[in-house]
């Protein structure tokens, strides 16, 4: 894995619209992406744990969060957006890979600006909060999600499906309400099974898959005490993996971060003619 720095991230995502969808882990993915577009600093523990705040590092809360009732229910909503002169990043909190709410997000894509990159994961809530026999339900919703995505997004949009990261033996978190605490010991095994099906389906729909479960299987020291979330070092690693993946998908060579600015610019786009969507 390459180390990607602030300047490289800014150049790679110049005039690009990135959408991140998913749970609290994906919120951390969004936050670290917003941060690296402004500096090489790492997220603080407080920033990682916060949810629904009015503003984070120059972004804004668009809807949900503290604007509404804060809760740990499946209907919790949080839409965030960061916009600079040359970058646009949006986050939607989702608890199910396909639902009426996801259909409304698809409607946003259809009627509004088309994202250049969509980074998505939805698993832990899907397999724990809706149906005790979750597999058939999850598979059907995955089919509906990927099928709908193919109808809504242009062919050039890069969709990256993140596989769910390893859960601990003992877990606690906002999704784990008292009614389902008995499921906790089994969830880490269910995640492995769910990853297999979601990754297989994403591949069948010709979507990119980033196997975060594999990448972090030996990095459990960076998982927090709740057995679910991960620290700032892990989140910067996820960001680097994502940006490296995006660069490879677009045929862009990520230069050595120690090179000069002029050398970086010439190296970053050697034979790169990907159309840039200007949203200013």
Automatic annotation (TrEMBL):
Belongs to the PC-esterase family. This is Family with sequence similarity 113. It comes from Oryzias sinensis (Chinese medaka).
């Amino acid at each position: 894995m390459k180390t990607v720095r602030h300047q490289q991230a800014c150049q790679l995502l110049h005039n690009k619209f990135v959408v991140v969808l998913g749970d609290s882990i994906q919120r951390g993915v969004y936050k670290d992406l917003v941060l690296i577009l402004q500096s090489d600093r790492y997220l603080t523990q407080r920033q990682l744990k916060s949810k629904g705040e009015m503003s984070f590092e120059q972004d804004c809360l668009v809807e949900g969060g503290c604007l509404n009732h804060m809760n740990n229910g499946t209907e919790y909503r949080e839409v965030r957006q960061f916009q600079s002169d040359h970058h646009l990043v949006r986050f939607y909190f989702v608890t199910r890979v396909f639902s009426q709410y996801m259909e409304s997000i698809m409607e946003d894509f259809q009627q509004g600006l088309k994202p250049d990159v969509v980074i998505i994961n939805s698993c832990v809530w899907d397999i724990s909060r809706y149906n005790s026999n979750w597999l058939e339900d999850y598979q059907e919703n995955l089919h509906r999600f990927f099928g709908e995505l193919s109808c809504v997004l242009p062919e050039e949009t890069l969709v990256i499906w993140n596989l769910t990261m390893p859960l601990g033996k003992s877990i606690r978190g906002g999704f784990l309400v008292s009614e389902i605490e008995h499921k906790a010991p089994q969830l880490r095994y269910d995640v492995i099974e769910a990853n297999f099906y979601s990754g297989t389906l994403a591949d069948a729909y010709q979507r990119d898959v980033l196997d975060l479960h594999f990448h972090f299987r030996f990095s459990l020291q960076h998982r927090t005490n709740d057995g679910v979330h991960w620290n700032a070092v892990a989140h910067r690693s996820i960001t680097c993996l994502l940006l490296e993946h995006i660069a490879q998908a677009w045929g862009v060579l990520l230069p050595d971060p120690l090179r000069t600015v002029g050398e970086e610019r010439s190296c970053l786009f050697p034979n790169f003619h990907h159309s840039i969507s200007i949203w200013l």
